[in-house]
């Protein structure tokens, strides 16, 4: 089994290797009353979500060489008894149920993988547990199909997410074990391991980190990513570098903008998708430029918005508006992940079909709109020019994310800027 080298120096380079996760029973392992425990606003229907996610995986398998599945990678590493024990000890300790280690060790690798995704029920054998509203000792992982959040491939190594909510730390532990031990991915090291954080004030998730190019990152200071974590990233990622520029965008700490990629994604070398009210409009988010050298921040400057800050680095961008030019459509389609596109080659992107005003805006900006099923069935070929693949996603978007959230690039080709 050949190793999948980590190489990710942009948001838009041609995709060669990516990790995704097909939703499983964990998606329905909640009730309206318990949905908030796993960060959901509502309960989702698995059959609908599976049909939609099949379009994402189907398109990716047409356009890239190596589509890896989270739930396939995990059983592979669980075949090693030591890896299995170490992981279970970490997961059970995280949730305060060390007594479950021996029981879970008795599962074979495939069944244990399924169990870890679906969650382990809480035995109601004490009064405290009996009256507890929680059904699970180890919670299910309905957010696992958002593979972007818990691990980030940046340059030649990974960052293991320091998740803002404990319920998502299990995902980070599972993915850390995969990157440490899987024959396709192991041995390449971490810039930072967020599962070993010593402070609750140090949180970072992948939806907030955009690799623009080798010397430039854009990071969201958000509900999920803290200022302390951004300082740590500046330190870690600039080690051995004469220059690394980081532009930080200060997001409102609200549900609609949990991550930067919910309001800003790269589509091409000169084109971005944005939620205008917070990126280019009168209420645009403040931006900060951190100039870094070999593990240190040299200075910090503040700017009125992201576009002005990016112009410092020669990026004169075309801003396509999520929801088009109508403020009403902008608000609605941002909420349904209209700005959250995934770029699998320069000018080739995939996003949700139900955000019609956003697709119209893309079409006006020169992107040919292509239906995902037509690509999957070879009814049409992907155009050589700019193209936006439109997939069904009404159910998936109710989970709070879009195509960028559901894809974690491991290897991309370099981009000529």
TrEMBL record:
Protein name as annotated: arginine deiminase
Catalytic function, reaction form: L-arginine + H2O = L-citrulline + NH4(+)
Gene Ontology terms: biological process: L-arginine deiminase pathway
Any one GO molecular-function label of the UniProt entry: arginine deiminase activity
Lineage: Bacteria, Pseudomonadati, Pseudomonadota, Gammaproteobacteria, Lysobacterales
Gene3D superfamilies referenced in this protein's UniProt entry, alphabetically: Arginine deiminase, L-arginine/glycine Amidinotransferase, Chain A
Catalytic residues (UniProt): 405 (amidino-cysteine intermediate)
Record bears the keyword Hydrolase: yes
